[in-house]
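Page 42, continued from yesterday. The earlier attempt failed because a stray header line got pasted into the input along with the sequence. Redoing it now with the clean sequence only.
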Amino acid sequence: MWGGIPSVMAEEVHRDHTDHPHETQETPIMDHHRDSAQMEHQGHEHGHARVEIPEGATVPEVELQVYPDAMKGWNLEVKVTHFRFAPESVNQPSDWNEGHAHLYVNGDKITRLYDRWYYLPELPVGDNEITVTLNTNDHKDLWHNGTTIGDTVQVTVSP
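This time it went through. Structure tokens are written below.
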């Protein structure tokens, strides 16, 4: 897919604590770029229809954490609130508070996620953008106030 397994280059972590002010833990190798609970939609139009969260409704949130695996690759943790993973209802009409996530690496869709954890065996050398978006069972992107509900983490891999 992307060649051999390179080593991890430690990066300084820059976190935006505006939507998670209680967090103090910093995880190496990642840099969150988040605006409130929504990811700014900079070049992430993935060609899906979208569902805007209704005014006054509790807005789902997603937080992506990326951890280097002890053997090789990366472990991704997708934390959601006010949203339920519903693999039993995939491809069916649904409400805005259940469904699945879509995983993108450097703008390319990798897979759907139906649970909190995912193992990513490798990343290409250099800077990588890992993004998750929340989606309804019928694959519509969830939006609130004009932005996709998602999270992006930057991971730098050295040769």
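Notes: The radius of gyration is 15 Å.
Reminder to self: strip header lines before submitting.
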